[in-house]
Amino acid sequence: MTGGCERIDTLRLAQANGSTPTEWPEAATSLRLPAETDADGRLWLPVSVDGSPPVPFLLQASAGAPALTGARPSGPEGGGAGRVRLDGALLPDIAGGVMVRNRRLSLGTAALLHQTVLLVAAEDWPHVRPAGGAAGVLGYDLLRRYVVELDAAGDAVVLHRSGFDFAALPDVRRLAVLSRRPYFEASLDPGGGDDRWVRLLLEPADPTALCLDRPAGPDAELELGGRRLRPAAVHCPGPPADAGVRDGVLGAGALGVLRIVIDYQSSRIGFAPLP
């Protein structure tokens, strides 16, 4: 059972960046950010914290708040810091850390201003880091602000502030954001029998291409953006944090064959095949 302190601290961190402003280059409608793709296909973005040299931040859709390890932001505390304990849903596999306010997270020439960031001890950090140095995670607080295009083939994440043409994508679906996590539905062909609809969590920080919480037959597959994907032979690892909400996960492995465009504000997700 989650204790009262964890519930209160999780709520404090979740709400901390609710109305914080952004900085965007004048006259630009989109911004292309170089991304590092690790051996698992996951995308890491270079993010500068308070003007420091950029460190890699894992793009994790289920991260409901920014977190950082291996480096401490410089500059004024901007309202102080406090140690918090989390219930596990806001930042998967992170139990807590020190909450530091008023940080500037710069992504190229764009920036998220007055951010509250959780500083996590190295021994409590669950993600393998490129080169083993400082790193972070960033998800909801980026994805909710822009149309975000994941282009692993071009080693980039593209932020669109306005004007993205979803009509140019061959496959556009409704996106549901529940408890800060993005879900969409797809029709699963079990390979003999009636198709069934499944709700998938989009999680580019999960190495899998496609896994299901309940095993499907060996011939099962679903189609996204003109590509046919087969679920992993085993079901998704570990108990889902959103049990009863999702049926599986579309992860980083799918970025090898699909370009994915996410629009939280208009509740849309689009897919296009990579060459």
Task: From the structure above, extract its key features.
single chain; 275 residues; mainly beta; Cathepsin D, subunit A, domain 1; 2 domains; seven-stranded mixed beta sheet; six-stranded mixed beta barrel; 2 helices; 22 strands; 6% helix; globular
Would you write up a description of this structure?
The protein is mainly beta and 275 residues long. The chain folds into two domains: 4-147, Beta Barrel (Cathepsin D, subunit A, domain 1); 166-273, Acid Proteases (Cathepsin D, subunit A, domain 1, Beta Barrel), CATH 2.40.70.10. The protein has helices at residues 4-15, 140-143, and strands at residues 22-23, 30-34, 36-37, 43-49, 55-59, 67-69, 81-85, 96-107, 110-120, 135-138, 147-151, 156-160, 171-174, 176-178, 181-189, 196-203, 210-212, 221-224, 227-229, 248-251, 258-263, 268-273. The strands form three sheets. Strands 14, 15, 16, 17, 18, 19 and 20 form a seven-stranded mixed sheet that branches. Strand 11 and strand 12 form a beta hairpin.
